[in-house]
Amino acid sequence: VSELKAATTTSSTCKGGNMVAGGTLAIRRLNMSYGHLEVLKGVDLVIPQGSVTCIIGPSGSGKSTLLRCLNRLVEPKGGDILLDGKSILTMKPEALRRRVGMVFQHFNLFPDHTALDNVMLSLRKIKGMPRGEARRIGEARLADVGLLGRKDHRPSGLSGGQQQRVAIARALAMDPEVILFDEVTSALDPELVKGVLDLIADLGRQGMTMAVVTHEMGFARRVADQVVFMDEGRIVEVGSPADIFDAPKSDRLRRFLAEVL
Ligand code: ADP
Ligand code: MG
């Protein structure tokens, strides 16, 4: 009975309960280039555990590259990234990606698999979890994003917003300490954007550590604990939403806000 109770408690609170762990990222003098093109030029930033960091800036400023370094999808040329004080650059990428999840603009779901299989796959393959347990967790995470009723649908049978929520459920299923979101609403029809942003805001309220690259300035103002403005491979300003949106210090940020707001 107590085991059953524990299991029930876990699954009913796991939306918040599975995301209380560590996960402070400290980025130190990070450099990255593609060939001769310098894309990150000495980025310093701390993403504190349990906080939401929104990253804004013009196209080409290096936002995606920064996130990709945090997940080792690309390797920086210099500097370091610490996760709870330990360099991620010496970890195995697979080990790192269990701790730092990522959600992409174009969902990247497997088209031939159902929603539930998409969520279960990395649990099976990366964590080597038995099918029954992976199914239980997969169903719980789909329920968290409001899509348990669609678990047997393939991506093509889901709206863009639903596909993105499946992708978020997939990231959550790995029980990561940090989740990176790269313009996850940019490919969605306008009426589907709010549902996905509300879900991310909800995760933030539950204490998930997140870095969110977004063009949604209203979201950044409402949800971010800190906002980072990047331009040309550098962080130009960091501050609270009020600092960034109401009292920008640099001309570059003022010009950017004048264009997007
Ligand atoms: P953002 O996400 O802010 O739009 P990116 O990080 O995608 O910026 O890109 C930063 C710069 O790096 C841009 O000049 C872009 O053209 C270049 N870039 C991005 N990815 C690659 C790549 N795989 N190969 C070469 N250049 C790239
Ligand atoms: Mg980008």
Short description:
The chain is of the alpha/beta class and about 260 residues long. The chain contains ten helices and ten strands. Adenosine-5'-diphosphate binds near residues 39, 61 and 62.
Explain what this protein looks like in three dimensions:
The chain is globular, with a radius of gyration of 18 Å. The protein has 10 helices and 10 strands. The model is unreliable at 1-20 (pLDDT under 50). It has 261 residues and is α/β, with parallel strands linked by helices. The chain has helices at 2-17, 63-70, 93-99, 115-125, 131-144, 160-173, 190-205, 217-223, 241-246, 251-260, and strands at 25-34, 37-47, 52-56, 78-83, 86-87, 100-103, 178-182, 209-213, 226-231, 234-239. The strands form 2 sheets. A 6-stranded mixed β-sheet has the order 6-7-8-3-9-10, with helices on both faces. A 4-stranded antiparallel β-sheet has the order 2-1-4-5, covered by helices on one side. α1 packs across α5 (131-144), α4 (115-125) runs parallel beside α6 (160-173) and α6 (160-173) runs parallel beside α7. Adenosine-5'-diphosphate binds at residues 34, 37, 39, 57, 59-65. Magnesium ion is lined by residues 63-64, 183. Belongs to the binding-protein-dependent transport system permease family. HisMQ subfamily.
Helix content: 40-55%
Radius of gyration: 18 Å
Apparent shape: globular
Strand runs, count: 10
Question: Hey, roughly how much beta strand do the residues contain?
Answer: 15-25%
Strand order of the largest sheet: 6-7-8-3-9-10
Structure classification: alpha/beta
Bound molecules: adenosine-5'-diphosphate, magnesium ion
Termini distance? 55 Å
Low-confidence stretches: 1-20
Major sheet characteristics: 6 strands, mixed
Global mean pLDDT? 92
N to C succession of SSEs:
HEEEHEEHEHHHEHEHEEHH
Count of helices? 10
Family: Belongs to the binding-protein-dependent transport system permease family. HisMQ subfamily. Belongs to the ABC transporter superfamily.
Main location: membrane
Keywords: ATP-binding, Cell membrane, Membrane, Nucleotide-binding, Plasmid, Transmembrane, Transmembrane helix, Transport
Domain ABC transporter: 25-257
